[in-house]
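debug: dumping io for the single-chain case to check the tokenizer round-trip. Nothing else runs in this session.
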Amino acid sequence: MARARSPILRTALFVTGALLIAVAPLVGIIPGPGGIFVFAAGLVLVLQNSLWAQKVFARTKRRWPRFGHYADKALRRASARRRRLRAEEAKIARAEAELLGFGDTAR
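debug: decoded output
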């Protein structure tokens, strides 16, 4: 079980993340993909330390699933891995049911 962070540390990490997100367009001017990585680092810090940001992120993922897929993949979220594994297992189960002659009734 992870230890709870102190409120001061969580606030400091949230502010650092917000600053990184704000600085990302400035870093994006420099040739190369640096702005993307700075933005991603800021997003990770904000999402880890703000319940409000987590709720907004979840709402955004529900509204735009493709964005959510790529964001989860980039953030290496465990929940995305679990969903992907469940989808693969369901696909295998459907294929096995079809082989056994159950067709579409085995859902």
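debug: round-trip ok. The mean pLDDT is 84.
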